[in-house]
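yo, THUMP domain-containing protein 1 is done. seq:
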Amino acid sequence: MSSFQKRYSRSSGNSKSKKSKKPYYRKQSNFAAFKPGISGVFVSCAKNKEDLCIRECYDLFDAYADLIYKPDDSIDVVDEDEANKKIGDDIESTIAKELAQMKRPHTSRRFASIQTGTDCVVFIKTNHPVVPVQLVHYILTDLNNTKQKKTRFCKRLVPITQTCYTNINDIKKLAEEVLHPHFYTQEEDQKQRIKYAIIPNIRNNNKVNRMELIQQIASAVGDYHIVNLDKPDLVIIVEIFKVLNFLFNFST
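structure:
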């Protein structure tokens, strides 16, 4: 059984048997750990299923991250073992990597949950080398290709490129930083007008005006590119959640 199948089988088992385990959701770091400058994935789930959702996210994300990145990318890697690996050593090598990852300090691991203080929403913080947009895109592409559902409790995945506080100045500054590589990396003589759409989602916050938010994001993109809500080349999703703003850019 592959590493992916083992993780999937653990999170797809009988949910009743997991009630005796220590809850992940309520034992994680408090809301103060939710701060600007972090990246991760927002995950929605059914009420009172947050613990199971987080455990499932750990298994799911780790399995796919192993396919995208080197298992030990976040720490120093010695290539000698990989170069000398023999066919008969696959099992021993896999076990050794699993044990090495378990022994790594918590801060060096690829994923960590942070409490949102809201029912039905969990947040999985990502660490280097994981790129949230890349990870979620890979998961959804695999789901589309295989038609095989690999989750029971996770409903929607929203990758978060970076966070900031919910004031217009910080939002615009972050928008310029995140969006610039997607809109302004072409050579002048090859520059094409990109069609884009802005989708703001505001939850548990009454301080941000929706239209003002859209206008500020559009100003960060600039007048050269074109708004197209029907068939955009790029979709800019802005998640406003409590005191933090979550900005995500993804090509369609």
